Structure formats: C-alpha cells, structure tokens
C-alpha cells in the first residue's frame, strides 16, 4: 500500500479549475454531511481507526465523481493517484473488506442520506427563487448487475434477491403520421424521479423493483414531497409527465390538493375505437380523448374544432369559443346554433381528459416539452454517474447508490450557484471518453 507522508502539503490551488478534482472540491465543500459524519464516528466508538470515517466517506464520493463502476476500480485509482489520496485524507488505500464494512454501515443509515438530499433541495430552493416552480416526473430503468433471478434464495451478500423484471413501452408519431413503438425490458430496479424542469435537478426520488407501476409510485412521490417539502408543492405551478402517469386520480390530486396544473399525456383507453363522446348537456358538441372539443353546424352538419378561451379557476371550467367567432369562418347555421356564444366545459366531465391547461392548446404543448428535463437527468446518471456500467446487486445497495449520486449532483449544482457559476450548473462531471 502506498503511503503519503505529508498530507498537509496538498492545496486546492494546485488543481485545474475545470478538472475532475475541482468538481470533487465542490462536492466536499458543499455537501451537508457533518451530521452524518458525526453519527458514523460516534457509532464506530473506540474501535480501530486505520481508515478514518471522513476519509472513507471522501473516497466514496470521489468514486462517484470519477465514475468508478466498482470499489476495486476506485481502489486502483487511489493506489496510483497520490493527490487523490491526499484530498480524501488517506495515508493508505483501504482494503476491500474495509469498504464492505463501510458500505454496510451507510446502508444502515440510509435515512441520513435522504435527510442530506432534503437539505440540499431546501438550500437550492432558497438560493434559486424559481427552483421547483416547474416540475417533471418520470422513472428510469436500472438493470441489476445480476442478469436473472437467482435459483438459490438464501441471502449471502452476493446474489440479487430483490430485483424484478420491468417493462416500459414508448410510443410516438413520426413526421409522416405513422406510429412507432419501442418496448424496453430489463431485470432490476426503477429510479422514480421528480425534477425541477427549469434547472434539471432532482427534488424527490424513490427506488423500487423494476415491476413497480409508475402511476402508483407517482402518488408515493407526491406523498414524500408533502411530508418533506410542502413548501415546494405550494410553489409548484406545473407538473409534466408522460402517458405512463395518465391517471384521473393523480391528475385530480395535483390540481385539487396542491393547485398544480398537470400536463400529462393521455393513453388511448376508449373502447371499440370510439372517436368522440357527446359533451353532457349539449346536442351538437363532442370531445375526443385528446381533449379537443368540436361543434356541429345545425344547418350543414359540418364539424369544426372550437377555439380555446382560457381556464376559469373559480368555476373549474374551460371556455370553448365558437370557431366562426374565433376564426371568422362562415357557418350557415350560426344563427340557430345553441353554442354560438361558446360553451363551458367543467373539469368534472372527465378529470383524465380535461385539465386546467387545455390539452390541445399551444401552452400545453409548450409546457409538455419541459418533460424532457427528466430524460436529461437520467442521461447524466447513466453517462456521468456510471449507472450504465455499475456492479450493484440488491435494493438496499441500489437505494444507497442512487441517493449518493443524486446528492453529489445537487452539491455540485449548489457549489456552482454559490460561486457565481450558475451558467455551468449542469456541468456535473466530465464524460468518459
């Protein structure tokens, strides 16, 4: 094992301002880990202190920043990189057994990692006035290091007895109007995320088996935010998500309980290919599953889509304007049309389809584009935090690893904000070439 005789000779001024060590500096200086370190040191008591708690913790954070897929990879880096050992406070490279014991201790203190994440979210909310105003929700598939369920069900620390098969289906429409579908299957876990869509940073997360429903966990995420960050739910204005979260209860809850406008795509669930339904209380007004409202001319029977007239919050209704009035088109039956003055569509007609922001409006399409913020956060977790090539087995380890990665992501961003480098807030770690 390599020895560093004079750790005090290291200076942060010697590192490259845009290098990996500078990113590690941001994490070490801005991660609120003092309470966790004090608790771990107290738990250790008066036992052997060959590898100090703080030094082990710093090296674990370095492994995340430098994208090491395994503890052995990190140990090799520490063995060859004396400067990194000095930064971490290590005089010798810890043994694999030492890291195993330390990881086990961290898993036993998972709630402390969650508290650290919550503190970072709260601090960023104070530093960035618009943080949390636009939210986006999605899940991320994370394959287990194990490729399939183990036939041996006895826990031995090596097998993955927690993972489950997961399936996600992606659908879309090409420019020529044709549709496409992509089915992704994996054996492992799901990371469920709520992120700030403006700054592309996480604000809430859970980790489950791969078989867990997105909609069910969506409610859990809201429960967690209500418990941990009620002030953010009060601040939030819009929540975007893909059609995997299309659920009338979730949509209703966003608006009724929190005043958050849900912008969630719809699945096509009407049976027998039913294209439209009659709007209650009207004889010549129908709506489709995409939220568009149409009126029929009493004279010719021609159908036209009605224009959006905005949302009336006090009434809980969407205003729809006569197309002849809105667009100036000719309608032979306008004089006798019962909806020539427009209609009000109550959200209660169908909470899954009618939302405070009309689905077919330009504003809805504009807000829905913010959903891709979650995809970019997921991409950074894969590319910049090593989830594409990890060696993790077990739900407890996966929760710990996800929690640490998200804390590192937030700590880097907080460091950028505090050091007046907000334009580089998303420059988290350098991609491996």
UniProtKB/TrEMBL annotation:
The record's section on InterPro entries has: Transposase_11, Transposase_InsH_N
Q: Where is the Transposase IS4-like domain?
A: 180-409
Query: Which Gene Ontology molecular-function terms are recorded?
Result: DNA binding; transposase activity
Would you kindly state one Gene Ontology biological process term found in this protein's UniProt entry?
DNA transposition
Coiled-coil boundaries: none
Domain Transposase InsH N-terminal intervals: 13-103
Transmembrane feature ranges: none
Q: What is this protein called?
A: Transposase IS4 family protein
